[in-house]
Description:
Blueprint: H1 9-21, E1 43-54, E2 60-71, E3 82-86, H2 97-105, E4 109-113, H3 133-146, E5 152-154, E6 157-158, E7 160-165, H4 167-178, E8 182-188, H5 194-198, H6 214-225, H7 280-292, H8 297-305, E9 319-324, H9 332-343, E10 349-354, H10 365-384, E11 394-402, E12 409-416, E13 426-430, E14 437-441, H11 460-467, E15 474-478, E16 486-490, E17 493-499, E18 505-514, E19 520-522, E20 528-532, E21 545-548, E22 552-556, E23 561-567, E24 580-586, E25 591-595, E26 599-601, H12 604-635, E27 650-658, E28 664-673, E29 678-682, H13 689-696, E30 704-709, E31 712-713, E32 724-727, H14 739-750, H15 759-766, H16 781-792, E33 799-803, H17 811-824, E34 830-834, H18 838-844, E35 847-852, E36 855-861, H19 862-867, E37 871-876, H20 879-887, E38 893-898, E39 901-905, H21 911-920, E40 925-930, H22 934-942
Parallel strand pairs: 3-4, 3-7, 7-8, 8-9, 9-10, 29-34, 29-35, 32-33, 33-34
Antiparallel strand pairs: 1-2, 2-4, 5-6, 11-12, 12-26, 13-25, 14-24, 15-23, 16-22, 17-21, 17-24, 18-19, 18-20, 18-23, 27-28, 27-30, 30-31, 35-36, 37-39, 37-40, 38-39
Keywords: ATP-binding, Hydrolase, Membrane, Nucleotide-binding, Transmembrane, Transmembrane helix, Transport
Protein name: Alpha/beta fold hydrolase
InterPro entries: AAA+_ATPase, AB_hydrolase_fold, ABC_transporter-like_ATP-bd, ABC_transporter-like_CS, Galactose-bd-like_sf, P-loop_NTPase, Xaa-Pro-like_dom, Xaa-Pro_dipept_C
Amino acid sequence: MPSPLPARLRRALTRRRVVAASAVTVLLAGAVVWAAWPEQQDFRTESRVLTVLSGPTGDESVALDTTFYLPDGASAGRKVPAVLLAHGFGGSKESVRSDAEDLAGLGYAVLAYTARGFGRSGGQIHLDDPDHEVKDAQRLLDWLAARPEVRTDGAGDPRVGVVGGSYGGALALLLAAQDQRVDAIVPMITWHDLAGALLPESSGRPPVDGVFKKGWAGIFFGNGGSAGSGPAGLAGVTGNQEGAPASAGPPSPAPGTGPGTGPGGGPAAAVDPSCGRFAADVCAAYLRIATTGRADAEAVARLQRSSPAGVLDRIKAPTLLVQGTADTLFPLAEADANARGIAANGTPVRVAWYTGGHDGGEGPRTDSDRLKFLTAQWLDHYVRGAGDPPERSFTWSRTTGFDALDRGLVATGYRVTDYPGTGGTARSSVEVTGPVQSIANPPNGNPAAISSVPFAGALSSFLSGVAGDLPGQHARFESAPLPAAVDVVGSPTVRIRAASPTGEAVLFVKLYDVNPEGAATLSDGLVAPVRLTGLPTDVTAAQPVTVTLPAIVRRIEAGHRLRIVVATSDQGYATPAEPTVYTVAPGGGPVTLPTVAGEPIATAAAVWRWVLVGLLVAIVLGLVVVVAVLRRRHRRHDTSVHPEYAGTPLAVRNLRKEYADGFVAVSNVDFEVHPGQVVGLLGPNGAGKTTTLRVLMGLTQPTAGEIYVFGHRLVPGSPVLSRIGALVEGPGFLPHLSGLENLKAYWRATGRPEADAHFEQALEIAGLGASVHRRTKNYSHGMRQRLAIAQAMLGLPELLVLDEPTDGLDPPQIAEMRRVLQRYATDGRAVLVSSHLLAEVEQTCTHAVVVNKGRIVASGPVEEIVGESPSVLFDVADPAAARAVLDRLAGVRVLPDGDGGLVVDTNGTARSEVVAELVRAGVGVDRVVPRRRLEDAFLALVGENSRGSGDR
């Protein structure tokens, strides 16, 4: 079970003070919870086995393994308040060691102990029974009262608080009810009615009719079932504790820790392996329930004897109840029932929910900070007697992001003045609909759905796609998309109707949050089991049943849908063994969602986020000013239209780009793109193509030369850029938006009317179909490329500049892109394409510009460039011998093989002379034909192994 306080808080708090010091200008006095935690102090420890007398008659002897943590300076002349620290089920005093050290560092004398039946302590497990575990704790209070260093309120009455989680939390509640010497308690993630927790029923029936929570009960029983010790790694210490005086020595062996000992350490017969260290009545109750899947009155009475539910009216100690939202064992309703029962007597009560629990651990550190502050504040006032009375406000939290310091999760806390319970302060209603559906109850509950796994409820989000709601075993009812977000804080309710041929049904009702992509999330794996009786065989005759779902804290975003699932099986619960088929339908009326409007609680992470936001705002404002200055400066430049290029979409004149380190990416590029043309910009890697495009789009400044767009000299921020559409250096989209939303966001940023965007034409070009409504984070590379091309074509710009537009497209899409570009270059529009697919350029482009080593080596119509190719295709009898002959001819070069022959660059040598040399060498020549392809011309122009100077 989780320990009650986070470990090693001193180091974490010291580190966070450094962070807070950098944000002192943000005045949130008292809101940053960790700042209130006192400095770490030194302490010493004493480990010993204490023998106490308890039991129904008070004469049962049991040995308890303990460690006493005493702050340095505590003495008979300087007494300190005390804390009794209890551990979770299956744990030991070692499980809470770090928590004890933290509390001792706060100035409390802390007695941590291993409960009977666990670790090195003796005795049997009675599940926090008032006559056993609770009386054991009373005897420990006697021991604390006798310590000279511990402050007392009277003879035998120590000034003491009790802190514990889960099993230890119930102990704190039961002890406070049984012993009025307890001054304050902090029970965490614990139960109200143990029978109701292990046999829940969400339609209002008593635990005797509840649905057995076999998964958790099996873990619960198994942790205490092994004779002699708890789980591996939880055995007691074997030597000196760290910080213990050298004279303390190892603790004496505790009686009752092995198979040969009985309760209290006396001799006993061999331990029954089916019961281990459980008391006989507890073991018998569990075995009966686990065997039949149903509780009987005697078993329920035994579990309720170990429950705070029956004694809440006797608790006078101020109570801070901490409960986790990620808890399928003891959900939020358990703390809610405890709070209402204790507060009814006028006892001070405060409730705090957090994002951890049995399934979620301590939660994010921001939650730990909040709970540390609340615990320290509660103990300081009600036990130490220092500080103002703590507020009785209700606090809760939900995960909202990541810590700017360590990238851990951040849970934002909220508070309201009055505790609203699980019903919230307001309610939202959401209609769910669906047809009548038949669902099968599998024999012996197999196969069964998996909603959660003990200690790992969060895994439900991963399991839903593997073994969640099984086909044929569940019904679904869904809502329309929510028009606005809803912050759920509490227990939703829903009405269902059911029919069964047997007159009974066990069902599991779940509430899913379904996003627009269809992904469904079950909050922390929480389900509502119901056992219905007296059912008709026809669902039309069934009466509606109201099901109270587990309390949750969740923000359901606008556009999400609610899904109610009614299932017949769940791996964590016992279900009827006989197979049958139920019929279920909506019960009429909406799903009700409780809400609470709270005030956010500042944390160190929140303070730091605001500091970062401030810095980002300052940076953005600075960039805006810089851009505005640059734009104004550029607007002062010549804005006249060059008459020679007024009708030319693009004219590049003597372009040069040289970097500060002397690297020359482009040395002399000069070309034009005219209306109706599709111009291919070609060149080997590093030739300067991308640099030319970057200068063209204003992404970098040229060293020399000019670029004119329809006669306007191009500079960054120039208005004429609005007449250019571009895809350069790959697409960039917001992953949380759909493709269409990205296009619309981009167009809005241009400030132009939506009617000018021509979205329909652009989407037709993209060819994404219904996928345009999906989030782009789920797009493939090819889908993102097509969306980027559509974005470049928004507004049908007069000049379209595309860098590798077919990257990521399949052959049919490439062919369609070829036709799109050719159609686009009409009505005065033009296209400039940079590509390495020479065959596509040859089929798509009307003109080509070939760049090599930062210079243009050829430009003009594609057919002219191809026609100038000097390459020839030779079909020969012996290619190897022919290659050897040709390699000896001056100026003649064999190009890469093509179509089974030799492609040869004759470089001005007459073809007849080449053929004659081959014949003289005895090589048969079957055919000689001109080889006129763009690829050949390209290789002839730049060289087979040519490399540019390195594009940047």
